[in-house]
Automatic annotation (TrEMBL):
It comes from the Eukaryota. Residues 712-734 have a biased composition (Polar residues). Residues 1-19 form the signal peptide. SMART domains: NRF. Keywords: Membrane, Signal, Transmembrane, Transmembrane helix. This is Nose resistant-to-fluoxetine protein N-terminal domain-containing protein. Residues 82-231 form the Nose resistant-to-fluoxetine protein N-terminal domain. It holds the Pfam family NRF. One of its GO terms (molecular function) is acyltransferase activity, transferring groups other than amino-acyl groups. It comes from Brenthis ino (lesser marbled fritillary). The chain crosses the membrane at residues 247-268, 307-328, 356-374, 390-410, 452-473, 482-502, 535-552, 564-587, 641-659, 671-693. The keyword Hydrolase does not apply. InterPro entries: Acyl_transf_3_dom, Nose-resist-to-fluoxetine_N, O2_lipid_transport_reg. Residues 710-734 are annotated as: Disordered.
Length: 751
């Protein structure tokens, strides 16, 4: 009987368990959901309203994620001074689980995980304004936050078993291959910048801990990558506003004074037109006359070289577009992978090697320096000549430096704004005096104020050395020729020798490593900005100027036949194209030190020689379409504003890039549109600077260094100085400038 009872009990228990399992299985939605049957889907949703299993799973998953974050944070090695940050962060996460507004608001401003990293999107900035502008930050100081930028470098930990991969984008291979990949544009895919909104009490290393925890719980944390996290800039806090300092008020005061004096002098000048213009007071007033100074921008100097106006301004447009491309792609871009692919296109290769375009200005300056010196019947006072040259270059340069130091920090805000200030303002405040001494390309060039300003000391050095060589030649012709030949050969060979000794690349291409940190590469400091490595183009221009004067004064060579001028012009364009497009090929070739050294030595002289051939063909011959286009009158005033545009354009571009809140999409229409805007803004700035500062100060220098006229008939004011009859006459901001003596003129080789 007992055995029968045992059997009955066992059967009953088995039957009960079977019924329970069957019931549980039937209630499981995943087992009864046939694929691609919408009717069944709707039925299941109706039947599950009571149980609400999907909601429970979602909430549980969220809680599991937050619990994991909490657990990981608690198990970090927090120091005593970091405990306030830990407590605030734990409170944030607990209130986030309760969906409290302030906690959700702060967490919502953080990018939950990096997105688009494999497509070249390096910056993951979250919502900067949401972090910094919570509605309660004034009333609730305890809830204030700070915005920090964490730079992260991901390192692969399985290198010992890693195999050589021919195609890193094989969809069935590990994504680690892409993270380790470096494109032809030299863009690293294993580096990212993550914007984190953290409690205001957190120290930088505490924010690094929080970032590490977030990274571990992202999709990148599944690969076992080793992350190197650092916060380099000071975090931005909502209660730390940038106060106006003495530099700001100093610049504003200077601007108001210059504008007021210019307006007042212009009004007085035209209300007293019949007064004695030879009086010192009237001459000083005339120096500030905006009307006369503006007219000088419109004067055509020498019609035989009118193609230079178009060449000058269009070259500047190419430089602005290249810098727009470079600075834009050095910032937050969402489609960096596409940019890397386009480096092999014609437009991409031009942007990579646009640095050679700057040698056009060196060549043009050398050409015009030669024309001035050779046409001058007697040697001028070279020290006064250098002073005049220095003042012409330094006025606008000093104003831009002052603007960067005093005004630029207050012109924007954003997650990357501190980097903009660190990249320009701090260097200018530190080394402004080196820049004004024209030594910034040699002394502490790692902290050069305004990266593009390396051109200015180079130009000044070239002018000084060339004038000294010419003076030596006039006094000792044989020795002068010998020195000229030696220096010319040395200027061509030096870049190649330096490249060979230091195993440098053939040229400094505008790749990602350079545009994201232009002061970083060794080649930038060794060969790119040094005067002794860029002098060859200037000397070639000087020789071309001598040849131009010789041909134009000769009866046999004053005119180049039409067919030869056309052939020479298009041949020069071909050579410049070869120089432009062969440079980027070194990115895809195996490195050969001798080959790189040879190319480094000849590519810039070849470009300068080709440009000079083009100028000679257009000025001494006739090249249809090209000559008429480059001689178009509107280029005249625009070319004279090129110097101011050159100085200010990167400041405007940097401002537009560093105020962005999210990664921008790169496309060429966007680049062109932005470039046109920068050119317009830069020309307006250059015009204002010329009218209120450059022209008046240079006019005052002329008044100080020239003798006062003896009679009222010998008028000598501002730009109304009587010039000698010569084809070398040029206006104040043109190429040939009047010298310190009334009967001699000097050249301005500034951009």
């Amino acid at each position: 009987m007992k055995q029968v009872l045992k059997v009955i009990i066992v059967v009953f228990v088995i039957d009960t368990i079977k019924c329970h399992v069957t019931s549980s299985t039937k209630s499981d939605s995943t087992t009864i959901l046939p694929e691609n049957q919408p009717n069944n889907v709707s039925e299941i949703k109706i039947s599950e309203k009571k149980t609400q299993i999907p909601k429970t799973v979602s909430v549980n998953e969220t809680r599991i994620y937050l619990d994991n974050v909490l657990f990981t944070l608690k198990n970090q090695n927090w120091t005593e001074e970091e405990l306030p940050c830990l407590n605030k962060t734990l409170r944030l996460l607990h209130d986030l689980q309760n969906f409290t507004l302030w906690a959700v608001w702060d967490w919502d401003s953080i990018a939950s995980q990096p997105q688009g990293l494999l497509y070249g999107s390096r910056y993951h900035l979250g919502n900067y304004d949401e972090c910094m502008n919570a509605p309660w930050y004034k009333k609730e100081p305890d809830l204030r936050t700070q915005y920090c930028l964490a730079d992260i470098e991901l390192e692969r930990t399985d290198k010992s078993v890693k195999k050589r991969i021919s195609d890193p984008f094989d969809p069935y291979q590990s994504a680690l291959n892409v993270l380790e990949y470096q494109s032809d544009f030299l863009r690293p895919y294993n580096k990212l910048t993550w914007g984190v909104c953290a409690p205001a009490v957190c120290l930088p290393r505490s924010v690094e801990r929080l970032t590490r925890v977030l990274l571990i719980h992202s999709h990148l944390g599944t690969a076992g990558l080793r992350a190197h996290i650092s916060i380099k800039e000071k975090c931005q806090k909502v209660n730390e506003t940038m106060e106006y300092d003495g530099l700001f008020y100093g610049f504003m005061g200077m601007a108001v004074i210059l504008c007021s004096v210019t307006l007042i002098c212009t009004i007085i000048r035209h209300q007293t037109e019949n007064c004695d213009k030879n009086k010192l007071g009237n001459r000083i007033i005339a120096a500030f006359d905006m009307k006369v100074n503006a007219k000088n921008l419109l004067k055509v100097s020498d019609e035989s070289l009118d193609v230079l106006y178009g060449i000058k301004f269009l070259t500047m447009c190419i430089i602005v577009s290249a810098h727009q491309f470079g600075i834009f792609n050095g910032g937050p871009v969402s489609n960096g992978f596409k940019v890397d692919e386009e480096t092999t296109t014609i437009a991409g290769m031009i942007m990579l090697h646009e640095d050679v375009v700057v040698d056009s200005y060196f060549a043009l300056s050398g050409l015009l320096t030669a024309m001035f010196l050779i046409k001058t019947k007697r040697l001028p006072n070279i020290f006064l000549l250098f002073l005049r040259r220095y003042v012409r270059l330094i006025v606008a340069y000093a104003i831009v430096i002052f603007y960067i130091c005093a005004i630029f920090p207050y012109t924007g805000s954003g997650p990357l704004w501190y980097r903009a200030i660190a990249g320009d303002t701090e260097q200018c405040r530190k080394n402004w005096w080196i820049s004004l001494l024209m030594l910034s390309n040699y002394i502490d060039s790692e902290n050069i104020c305004l990266v593009i300003s390396w051109y200015i000391p180079c130009d000044f050095h070239f002018f000084v050395i060339t004038v000294l060589l010419y003076v030596l030649y006039k006094k000792q012709p044989s020795i002068g020729k010998l020195f000229f030949i030696i220096i010319a050969i040395a200027s061509i060979v030096t870049p190649g020798v330096i490249n060979y000794l230091y195993n440098l690349p053939a040229i400094q291409l505008f790749t990602y490593d350079f545009i994201s940190n232009p002061r970083g590469p060794l080649q930038f400091h060794m060969t790119y900005i040094k005067s002794h490595t860029r002098y060859a183009a200037y000397l070639i221009g000087f020789l071309a100027g001598y040849l131009h004067i010789y041909c134009s004064s000769s009866n046999n060579y004053s005119k180049i036949p039409r067919q030869w001028s056309i052939l020479g012009a298009y041949f020069s364009i071909l050579i410049m194209g070869v120089v432009m497009f062969t440079g980027p090929l070194f990115l895809w070739r195996s490195y050969d030190v001798l080959e790189s050294a040879i190319y480094a030595a000849i590519n810039r002289p070849a470009w300068a020689a080709s440009l000079m051939l083009f100028v000679m063909c257009c000025s001494l011959g006739h090249v249809p379409i090209l000559k008429s286009f480059l001689s178009w009158y509107p280029w005249v005033p625009l070319s004279r504003l090129s110097y101011g545009l050159y100085l200010i354009h990167t400041v405007f571009i940097s401002r537009n890039v560093y105020v962005t809140r999210n990664p921008q999409h790169h496309d060429y229409m966007n680049i062109i549109t932005s470039t046109l805007g920068i050119i317009c803004e830069g020309c307006i700035f250059a015009l204002i600077t010329w009218l209120v500062a450059e022209a008046p100060i240079n006019n005052l220098l002329v008044i100080c260094l020239t003798p006062r006229p003896k009679s009222s008939g010998e008028t000598e004011t501002n730009q109304e100085v009587q010039r000698p009859t010569s084809s070398a006459n040029y206006t104040n901001n043109g190429y040939l400038q009047e010298n310190l003596q009334p009967s001699v003129q000097i050249i301005s080789s500034k951009i």
